[in-house]
Specification:
alpha+beta; 7-stranded antiparallel β-sheet; 20 strands
Length: about 375
């Protein structure tokens, strides 16, 4: 018994034959690629930024822009050792305000670090070198925190009583010098406020200041100084950009001053700090700019999709198609699959070509390292 001639494979082949046999549809598919690539290259060539000329960021160990600003009470530690403190209280200045212990390559903004901190709304967090943090147990102050350096590794521990410790995690700190600064830190990110009225949008940053109290502070290690006189208090800061040079945000204003510093009375430290620590996303996305023309290609394929699905009805040829394959739903599914697969393949070609040719133009316009690290197709966000 022979196979039916109207199987789904035969219907797909018939719809594919129709698509590639009609000249205007072939031209529309070619226009999809040409317009997508053309408008993408036009947008890439017309884009520009001066972020590298007027930087308000620092570069971290991985070569990417980072935020690194906080109050740091510190002393040097050579070799292996630990820094321990109890966070007695913490002001809820921001959901991600941090108060904890840190080991850092000096006080230069953007240098290597490992930090174990307590946050008002997200519990304990362990972070290192501006990468994603690891979560500890939830809850707020009081909380004991300890960072221990062993060779090229730093391990964070937390405790509610100072006797039973729970490991938060271990981070690789290769590249950290033998002598590093250890101590207490407080950070508090700014709050972004968006106001809309009468068709206008105003964006502002309200600076916040976090305050925390620490006791039972000590540094353990063969080369630890350990004396109260060894503690120094510094505000780790990064460059600031003039307000009128901020790009990408209309009517941008900075509001609110910060009063930071630290005091120590009978071994109890009160530290106030502002700023944030972590990766800093660029305000513009070079990949998105390089693919601007894909939106134009979508307009082409939408119009073509309407014609491809309905033209047989206008000319009455749908009767012949249904006579050959009576299942109307299967015919419509075959049309959608053929057009969708073709558009996907050609759109993928247009996307890769736009990405490859557009990035050099964007780099010429200022979208270059260090403000804009070179994106690669092997990176998941780019894919």
């Amino acid at each position: 018994m022979s196979a039916p001639r109207d199987g789904f494979g035969q219907v797909l082949l018939a719809e594919w034959t129709k698509l590639r046999s009609v000249r205007r549809w072939v031209l529309a598919l070619a226009a999809l690629v040409v317009l997508s690539v053309g408008f993408s290259l036009f947008a890439s060539a017309a884009s520009g930024t001066d972020s590298n000329e007027h930087p308000d960021f620092v570069v971290g160990p991985n070569g990417r822009p980072v935020a690194d600003e906080f109050q740091f009470v510190h002393q040097p530690l050579t070799g292996d050792g630990s820094v321990v403190a109890r966070v007695v209280s913490q002001r809820n200045s921001h959901a991600w305000a941090g108060a904890g212990v840190m080991i850092k390559d000096g006080t230069r903004s953007g240098s290597r670090y490992a930090a174990l901190m307590l946050t008002p709304e997200h519990g304990v967090r362990l972070s290192a070198n501006y990468e994603a943090s690891r979560a500890g147990r939830p809850g707020g102050a009081p909380r004991w925190l300890r960072l221990t350096r062993t060779g090229t590794s730093v391990t964070g521990y937390e405790s509610t009583d100072g006797a039973t410790w729970h490991k938060v995690g271990t981070v690789d700190m290769r590249g950290l010098p033998a002598t590093a600064e250890v101590g207490l830190f407080v950070s508090s990110p700014p709050k972004v406020v968006v106001s809309r009225s009468a068709g206008t949008t105003s964006v502002s940053e309200d600076q916040t200041t976090g305050t925390a109290t620490f006791d039972n502070v000590r540094v353990d290690g063969a080369q630890a100084t350990g004396s109260a006189a060894a503690w120094q208090s510094d505000r780790v800061t990064q460059p600031s950009r003039p307000e009128d040079s901020l790009e990408g945000v209309p009517d941008f204003k900075r509001r609110g001053g910060t009063r930071t510093g630290s005091t120590e009375v009978n071994g109890v430290f009160t530290v106030s700090g502002s700023g944030e620590i972590g990766p800093r996303e660029s305000p513009d996305d070079p990949v998105q700019a390089a693919l601007f023309g894909i939106q134009i290609g979508l307009m082409v394929i939408v119009a073509m999709g309407v014609l491809f699905m309905t033209s047989e009805f206008k000319r009455g040829m749908i009767r012949t198609t249904i006579a050959a394959s009576p299942r109307r739903g299967r015919v419509l599914a075959a049309k959608a699959l053929v057009l969708g697969a073709t558009a996907f393949v050609l759109g993928l070609v247009a996307t890769v070509v736009s990405f490859r040719l557009g990035l050099p133009l964007l780099r010429d316009g200022g979208f270059a390292p260090p403000a804009y690290p070179i994106p690669r197709l092997t990176e998941w966000p780019v894919l």
